[in-house]
């Protein structure tokens, strides 16, 4: 069975009060978010290992708590998929099969280079999480609430990244935009 069909069938059971077709829709939404956050956790750890420069320690130590929090979000997403009657897929092939997947292009580099790239990654992640919140809407309030909480944390992590790049006036410096 391919990755794209592993989690798209209507579940044989789901949580009480939720229709199986709605659960199926939520499973697909959650699987896409699970893939994206698995990727984000890997990217953050990659940057943690490969960042250099005068702000190395600040960035290096900032990233580990983000990795841990994102991994916890992945676990929550996977467990919600299972609770809805789906089968969460946490393999690298699931991640790479996602249509919008792009490999992080930077290896060893200065903090500013990595932070500018992370700004782009976080923008994409937060926008997609907000779209998933809209998709969950009133159809599944529990999934909706979980995604809102995760979006809040992701937005805070994005702010931490941006704080290193912003000017005093709150705009990105020209070298990072």
UniProtKB/TrEMBL annotation:
It comes from the Bacteria. Residues 30-166 form the Ferritin/DPS domain. GO terms for molecular function: ferric iron binding; oxidoreductase activity, acting on metal ions. SUPFAM superfamilies: Ferritin-like (SSF47240). It holds the Pfam family Ferritin. Belongs to the Dps family. This is DNA starvation/stationary phase protection protein. It comes from Paractinoplanes rishiriensis.
């Amino acid at each position: 069975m391919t990755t794209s069909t592993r989690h798209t069938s209507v579940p044989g059971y789901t949580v009480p009060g939720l229709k199986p077709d709605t659960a199926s829709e939520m499973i697909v939404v959650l699987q896409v978010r699970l893939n994206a956050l698995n990727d984000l956790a890997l990217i953050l750890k990659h940057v943690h290992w490969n960042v250099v420069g005068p702000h190395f320690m600040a960035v290096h130590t900032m990233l580990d708590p983000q990795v841990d929090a994102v991994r916890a979000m992945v676990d929550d997403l996977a467990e919600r998929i299972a609770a809805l009657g789906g089968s969460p897929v946490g393999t690298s092939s699931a991640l790479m099969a996602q249509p919008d997947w792009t490999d992080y292009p930077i290896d060893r580099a200065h903090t500013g280079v990595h932070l500018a790239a992370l700004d782009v990654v976080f923008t994409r992640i937060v926008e997609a999480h907000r779209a998933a919140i809209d998709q969950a809407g009133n159809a599944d309030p529990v999934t909706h609430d979980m995604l809102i909480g995760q979006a809040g944390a992701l937005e805070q992590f994005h702010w931490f990244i941006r704080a290193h790049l912003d000017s005093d006036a709150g705009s990105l410096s020209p070298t990072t935009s």
